[in-house]
Design a protein that fits this description.
It holds the Pfam family TusA. This is Selenium metabolism protein. The relative contact order is 0.13. The protein has two domains: 81 residues, TusA-like domain (Translation Initiation Factor IF3, 2-Layer Sandwich); 105 residues, DsrEFH-like (Hypothetical Protein Ychn, Chain: A). The longest helix has 15 residues. By secondary structure, it is α/β, with parallel strands linked by helices.
Length: 200
């Protein structure tokens, strides 16, 4: 059975999925078509909460598909407010993407970037994560770098810090990683596809 949930506002895709899979027999398949990251994640979250087996795939061009197999009974009572799309505006989580260890040239640029990062620790709507690639990985490995402390402060406040693994290897810094965790290109692409990006 195919369920087209494209162009539907949250939480409607979850509600339609619940009703559709609830009407299936054990072992029958439901293919859900989506074209929104929020709906893709919400339907996946719902199926997981209901103990349903499913596979999900990004088709490209903003299109997604989830194939679920009816695996047990569906709880008829769900809290639809858990599956409302995150509002657009000041509360949408951001990801800071750093391609260099400075904002501008020289030592002044290093200090300037550290001040920008320090500012994010002071605001209520803190970023979800900081992604460091290329020379930006020096900030997560060199304790003397001006950017090291503000990144450590952000991490202590719950902000995730990711450093490009290939970049760490290229600079011989893998064993010196002191903040956050090492990541790869696939994980970075996945993060950037889910959150608004800030470049400094």
């Amino acid at each position: 059975m195919q369920l087209d949930c494209r162009n539907l506002a949250c939480p409607e895709p979850v509600i339609k999925t619940k009703n559709a899979i609830g009407g299936l027999k054990e072992g029958e398949e439901l293919e859900i078509l989506l074209n929104s990251v929020a709906s893709f994640e919400n339907v996946s979250k719902f199926l997981t909460s209901q103990g349903q087996n499913f596979k999900r795939k990004e088709l490209g061009g903003g299109e997604y598909v989830i194939k679920a197999i009816k695996s047990g009974e569906i709880n008829e009572q769900i809290d639809a407010s858990e599956y409302v799309c995150e509002p657009i505006g000041k509360n949408v989580k951001k990801v800071i993407y750093l391609n260099e260890d400075r904002a501008g040239s020289g030592a002044v640029g290093e200090v300037l970037l550290s001040k920008f990062l320090g500012g994010f620790a002071q605001i209520d709507n803190k970023p979800y994560a900081v992604v460091c690639v290329n020379t930006a990985v020096k900030m997560t490995t060199d304790r003397s770098h001006p950017g090291f402390k503000p990144l450590r402060d952000l991490e202590s406040l719950g902000v995730k810090i990711f450093s490009c693994g290939s970049c760490l290897e290229a600079y011989g810094l893998v064993d010196k990683l002191s903040i956050g965790e090492m990541t790869n290109a696939y994980e970075v692409a996945e993060i950037l596809s889910k959150y608004d990006e800030i470049k400094l």
